[in-house]
Amino acid sequence: MLTSTASSLERAGLDAVALKPTECDVERAAELAIDTVAIDYEGRESLPAAEVLEALASEVDIRLTTPVRADGFDPLGDDSLLEALPETVGRVLVAGHPAYLTEDERARAVAPRLGAALEGLADAWVGTESVERIAMATGATQYDLLSRTTPRELAAIRAAGFDGDVAVYAPTVCSEDEDTILEAVGDYVARRQPVASALPDAAATDASATGRAREVLLAAAEDYALVGTERAVSDQVEVLHEAGATTVVGYPAAGLENVLE
User: pTM for the whole thing?
Assistant: First the structure.
């Protein structure tokens, strides 16, 4: 049995954690003392072995991100990788990041594949990035990326009568140090369109950023990520819960070691 220890993510009130298999040993997930762990998809070559997933599933609620357009996970085509998944591993169904898909895979229709993939998966989450309306139409748990408008949008859909579950994903940095924050999420927030438009041309997006670029990036980090002390992050998580999020998922953007004691 894996041993759980306190982690800054757990103390900050996160409901779940998202891990990237190319960045850390996902077998350490149970050390975070958080009950739900989502494993991001970064290409089939980085998929954790079935025995690793099965062992983790005996300790925590594991959810594996599976792009429905990718060979091996396509419910309307090659779904051979699904056969090896332990039944105890939950799913996060996504259209798939273009960087991890071939040209042919990117051309495949998303909607019919999400519908087919959801058959028999009552507890699956559906990633909303770029397919928000399709994801909402499935009625499954919505898996949203945090943005500056997320609290307002959550409150709006709850007011409109949506009573389904909504999980919100956010890069998380439990630190007040500006350089630490920028090293962890600077590149990430710089890719958001409003931020990219506000940044000076050819500006650095890491800890070396200065002047206007540094101001824009640090402000954006508060909109698109959860950053600050454990208490500050906890307060942000509470705002999301109050707005209507049922699960807040933190990705330890500064590395797994930085969130473990």
Answer: 0.93
